[in-house]
């Protein structure tokens, strides 16, 4: 590890396996003096970091994936991933945060009150069997927020830091989160305030800094310029365009990946990983473009594990879905036989083959000194011109989808109505679907559906082949 290459020197070296040292931005601010004599929070943060280390995320060779994995871990440990962005905004309102200027700092006790509202409201939406331990979630999340933002041990946090952190870490569509964030940094005419944007970037990158990814994703002036030019007039749509583009600015690449990870982690691949030989796995799947049918699970690919003649230099494609070979065969035969009418296309919609883009490893921000230097010194035009490819592309639909629905729901939220219409991806039910028991049920249902589809496809395939033979015969 080349220490002088750190961007701002306030994070731990990536891949550090040494003694736990939270660093100036990640936990030492949790002294008893700083948080009103609450040593429990210090211990809590330490435990959180210890548990994160056990996951061995530091051995992931791509900084984008590493940062996203670590933040996903924090999300799940604190249960904030079960709270939808709309419910989060509602809790901000309930606690009077919207009435405060964003730079107002509030005391730990008030933050605790906010978190209490958030998690108690969450439990109200969950069935009893899925209720979370609210006390534990509150103290864990509080300790993480203080560790990330209370550098000077004041026991207070700015409203802005809290809003940005929670809006980033909660569940929901990325576009909804970004819309909310933009509302915090734009004026009454809907134009972005550049000073507030710089502050916003500082707040959001404090999250990656808190999980020791500052070398790649720490705040710098260059990071600001990666997003917008000085003095540029930025509207909501332009803001969304930049943050949801593929590739998006390097400093923020972990954000869409983090969002995408929450859906991909439940995708089941019934195939054997060629490196670790595990017979099935969930998450991303990687297929070599050079070796015949060589596939890796995400754990192996991210950590550079190989076997046979495969090398890390080979081009890989990332898959976030699985389609059985039977279906693929049926599809190709169907395509080759134009005379056969397309049928049952509906059954394919659940597992689309997208995205299947080749990975350009040099652009996934590995934590090599060369890359670090590049990303921290390059100008906005440099990165924009390069064919940066972000595997964690936004999968949340177009920036303008469901716009009317969103506005209606947001308006309903603001007016305090509880009965606004909620779509499955954003509503409270999303929380339920993310709990472990439902995950298992979803997996079983998915497998059953896969199995049924396979049987249907095989039957259809047989019919098609017979039909083809018949056609050839005549
Ligand atoms: Zn593997
Ligand atoms: Zn290969």
UniProtKB/TrEMBL annotation:
<dbReference type="Pfam" id="PF00569">
    <property type="entry name" value="ZZ"/>
</dbReference>
<protein>
    <recommendedName>
        <fullName>ZZ-type domain-containing protein</fullName>
    </recommendedName>
</protein>
<dbReference type="Pfam" id="PF09069">
    <property type="entry name" value="EF-hand_3"/>
</dbReference>
<keyword id="KW-0862">Zinc</keyword>
<dbReference type="InterPro" id="IPR050774">
    <property type="entry name" value="KCMF1/Dystrophin"/>
</dbReference>
<dbReference type="GO" id="GO:0046716">
    <property type="term" value="P:muscle cell cellular homeostasis"/>
</dbReference>
<keyword id="KW-0479">Metal-binding</keyword>
<dbReference type="InterPro" id="IPR011992">
    <property type="entry name" value="EF-hand-dom_pair"/>
</dbReference>
<dbReference type="GO" id="GO:0050804">
    <property type="term" value="P:modulation of chemical synaptic transmission"/>
</dbReference>
<keyword id="KW-0863">Zinc-finger</keyword>
<dbReference type="GO" id="GO:0008270">
    <property type="term" value="F:zinc ion binding"/>
</dbReference>
<dbReference type="InterPro" id="IPR043145">
    <property type="entry name" value="Znf_ZZ_sf"/>
</dbReference>
<dbReference type="InterPro" id="IPR015153">
    <property type="entry name" value="EF-hand_dom_typ1"/>
</dbReference>
<dbReference type="Pfam" id="PF09068">
    <property type="entry name" value="EF-hand_2"/>
</dbReference>
<dbReference type="InterPro" id="IPR015154">
    <property type="entry name" value="EF-hand_dom_typ2"/>
</dbReference>
<feature type="domain" description="ZZ-type">
    <location>
        <begin position="268"/>
        <end position="324"/>
    </location>
</feature>
<dbReference type="GO" id="GO:0045202">
    <property type="term" value="C:synapse"/>
</dbReference>
<dbReference type="InterPro" id="IPR000433">
    <property type="entry name" value="Znf_ZZ"/>
</dbReference>
<dbReference type="GO" id="GO:0016010">
    <property type="term" value="C:dystrophin-associated glycoprotein complex"/>
</dbReference>
<dbReference type="GO" id="GO:0099536">
    <property type="term" value="P:synaptic signaling"/>
</dbReference>
């Amino acid at each position: 590890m080349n220490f002088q290459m750190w961007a701002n020197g306030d994070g731990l070296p990536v891949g550090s396996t040494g003694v736990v040292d939270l660093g100036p931005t990640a936990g030492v601010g949790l002294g008893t003096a700083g948080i009103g004599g609450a040593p429990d929070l210090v211990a809590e943060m330490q435990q959180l970091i210890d548990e994160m280390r056990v996951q061995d995320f530091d051995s992931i060779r791509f900084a984008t994936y590493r940062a996203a994995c670590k933040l996903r871990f924090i999300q799940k440990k604190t249960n904030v991933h079960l709270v939808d962005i709309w419910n989060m905004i509602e809790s901000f309102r309930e606690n009077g945060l919207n009435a405060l200027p964003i730079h107002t700092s509030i005391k730990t006790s008030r933050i605790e009150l906010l978190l209490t509202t958030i998690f108690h409201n969450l439990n109200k939406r969950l069935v009893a069997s899925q209720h979370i331990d609210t006390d534990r979630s509150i103290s864990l999340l509080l300790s993480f927020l203080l560790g990330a933002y209370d550098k000077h041990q004041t026991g207070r946090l700015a409203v802005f830091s809290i809003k940005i952190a929670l809006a980033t870490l909660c569940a929901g569509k990325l576009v909804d989160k970004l819309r909310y964030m933009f509302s915090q940094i734009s004026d009454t005419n809907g134009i972005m305030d550049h000073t507030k944007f710089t502050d916003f970037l500082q707040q959001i990158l404090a999250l990656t800094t808190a999980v020791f990814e500052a070398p790649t994703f720490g705040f710098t002036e260059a990071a600001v310029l990666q997003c917008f030019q000085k003095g540029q007039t930025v509207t909501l749509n332009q803001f969304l365009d930049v943050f949801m583009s593929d590739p998006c600015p390097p400093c923020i690449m972990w954000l869409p990946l983090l969002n995408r990870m929450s859906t991909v982690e439940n995708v089941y691949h019934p195939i054997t990983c060629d490196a670790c030989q595990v017979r099935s796995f969930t998450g991303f799947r990687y297929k070599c473009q050079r070796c015949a049918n060589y596939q890796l699970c995400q754990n192996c690919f991210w950590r550079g594990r190989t076997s046979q003649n495969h090398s890390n230099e080979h081009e890989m494609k990332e898959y976030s879905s699985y389609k059985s070979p039977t279906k693929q065969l049926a599809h190709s035969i169907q395509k080759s036989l134009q005379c056969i009418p397309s049928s049952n296309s509906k059954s394919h919609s659940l597992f689309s083959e997208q995205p299947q883009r080749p990975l350009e490893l040099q652009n996934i921000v590995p934590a090599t000194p060369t890359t670090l230097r590049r990303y921290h010194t390059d100008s906005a035009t440099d990165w924009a011109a390069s064919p940066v490819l972000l595997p964690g592309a936004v999968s949340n639909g177009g920036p303008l989808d469901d716009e009317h629905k969103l506005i209606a729901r947001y308006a309903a939220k603001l007016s305090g109505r509880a009965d606004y219409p909620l779509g499955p991806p954003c509503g409270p039910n999303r929380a339920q679907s993310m709990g472990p028991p439902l995950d298992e049920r979803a997996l079983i249902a998915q497998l059953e559906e896969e199995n049924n589809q396979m049987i249907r496809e095989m039957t259809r395939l047989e019919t098609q082949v017979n039909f083809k033979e018949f056609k050839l015969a005549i």
